[in-house]
Task: structure prediction
Amino acid sequence: MYAYDTFDHAMVNARVEEFRDQVARRLSGELTEEEFRPLRLMNGLYLQLHAYMLRVAVPYGTLNSRQMRRLAHIARKYDKGYGHFTTRQNIQYNWPKLVDAPDILAELAEVEMHAIQTSGNCIRNVTTDQFAGAAHDEVADPRATAEIIRQWSTFHPEFSFLPRKFKIAITGAPKDRAAVKWHDIGLVLKKNEAGELGVEVLVGGGMGRTPVIAKTIADFVPESEMLSYLEAILRVYNEQGRRDNKYKARIKILVEDTGTEEFKRLVEEEYEAIRASFIDVPAEEVVRIRQFFAPPPLPVLADEDAGLDALAAADFRFRAWVKNNTFAHKVPGHVSVTISLKPHGGIPGDATDAQMDLVADIAEEYSHDEVRVSHEQNLILPHVAKRDLVAIWQKLDAAGLGSANVGLLTDIIACPGLDYCALANARSIPIAQAITNRFDDLKRLEDIGQLKIKISGCINSCGHHHAGHIGILGVDRKGEENYQLLLGGSGEEDASKAAILGPGFDEHGIVDAVEKVVAAYMGERKEGETFLAAYRRLGPDVFKEAVYGAR
Amino acid sequence: MAHVDLQTGEDVAVWRILEDGALPDEAGEWLVPLGRLKDEAGSLLEEKGVRLGVLIETETPHSDLAGIGNYASFAAIRFPGFGDGRGFSLAVRLRKDYGFNGDIRAIGHVIPDQAQFLLRAGFNTSEVPEERREAFVRAVNRYKHVYQSDAQGGISILRQRHDQADTRRVS
Amino acid sequence: MAKKLSGPQMIVANRLTDGRVLFLTAEGWAVEPTHSIVAHDEDEVTALLAVANADVKANLVLAVEVVSAEVGEGGVRPGHIKTQMQARGPSVRTDLGYQVSPFWEN
Result:
């Protein structure tokens, strides 16, 4: 993975001192809260319901064991012994003190981490496929491209005060595990006929109160000119994006209002003017960065392992874990392991300091020192030999990390909701807990199959409910928590917007409704048909009848 | 309110804003709104020793800046609030697209923490409340190297890594 | 007579240094809502806000909000679920509420 050089170290160290200075000026009153707020947000520091919240960047979701241990240490020393992994592949601490924040950033800088641009109206942490560099189906490792974008977007002099936040996601595989169509810019790595690497560029995706799926404006931009193209998009957006209404300030509204073709014309005009200039990265730098992401030297191993087969035959839970929580690796005899942070009845995405330390230990011993964070709020060991799976599972299971539910109904995305978040209208976590308790039966879950439930506690959609096969949206109805049910969304390459099924429910009713939807699917599905495929075939009426018919 | 040179921190001589309908009544620097300047530059310049600057609001479409170098010897971009990032793009456009060589000055609400961004976007000077002058100077020297090249001769780290001989630096 | 409110109101804010939730009482800011000063009309709200905003100016608190209050036998409690959450801590981590956490002692 990428290692800082003296330039990168100097940059984050200067940032720590800058923030220390800003905090001191805030505490002395030299900076007003109005002025300090965007500055603290650009260092990931929010004010939530109970305390400040610090969002630490995990660039493109990649960590080494030393970094993971530092995250655990911060949870212990400055917080309450846990952290929350987010849909943007970051980690949030729920209880840091403002006065400690500069020290926390200093601790992060020591291990080549930061909280730069994890919030604010700027270019945020670039996200990608959690299996990058390991996936059997990828064209190229998207993390090298993401690192180039990370550097270009860090403290960009022109694009640090945009109309609104700006999120870029990139996938290196045609199978989209990074939800690129739901981002302000989505990038898909491709090779042209000459075998050169480039990106397909999509713009204007986003969730929030106006969900929009991104549209392609360039089929292929050579990697060598990608930054020029991105700079052109950002310049047009910075100049023309709306600033009079924060709900209409995202680029998706500009693209819709301008029209995709005209927006594309504006971007191409600027791109033509600036391409092949000083903006782009010299080829030798691309090579330098890409070499950090060279695949680890894995030996080709046998695909079968006697110990694995023996335990799988004896232990249903282990068999299910291997089936659900492992993903095919480029190198035979290896897999990527997803560590589920979705124990039934637990808080999606939360991990204790001890669990983080354990994951760091396992990564160091069994996964070439690498851990990934997925946008689905799980942790990944990307490079694992199949013969080590038994040992890994035993260690994970003993620490409460053995849930075998990846990709199944209880692998729920949920935002922090009203339990923590100042913007939320309703709680999300208790709904996830109630659903996972209701479906606490692995055999039943496997029978139901692939089903993604995504829960947001307000219309800002941090829980991706628009992209859920089943989406749940918490709203405030006359001071009471109320939950809307949406069906048919997808965050993948077949992206679609989930549609509201009917009237909302209270916190108990929504769990019953989910169960009725699932029952209707089970009754109607054809052999091998997933929930999403069945919904697309059947339409909403069958499900409406199942949920509301008895009223 | 002081007005300082972003690179040196030294005070800059202050111009006057030419009120609607008024004419420059003495020599010196006068700041004129973009629309009026385009219409009246010829007559305004008749006064001896007058240097005209163009006052640009952040909502100005950049295309309105075409040819502005023919009228104005300096420009001032007015930030209604420090979060209005359009001012940065306007400065970039002035340098990059319209070849403007005069001073670009930031006026209105900017904060010390933006000082280096202003400089790198092409501004030369900025309005600074007196009590914030020190913070401004600190901020402008904060980052010795940066990740973007710019039209002011700043070379991105991504290039510097491969060009050790090149010692040009931002700030 | 001052204009009536839709119901009794109280003041909540966060402490600047650590974000901790505070309620405005006659004795100053408190972590418990029980002794909050309750406003019954707009003049009283204005008076409470003047006190609270003075402490914003003094860089002691931020995020001052006027929120609905319920007055009962045990004292004052917040009326809205969001403020109730602020008073108690996250409902999903009752082990971490203010009352049980030494982290917050001071």
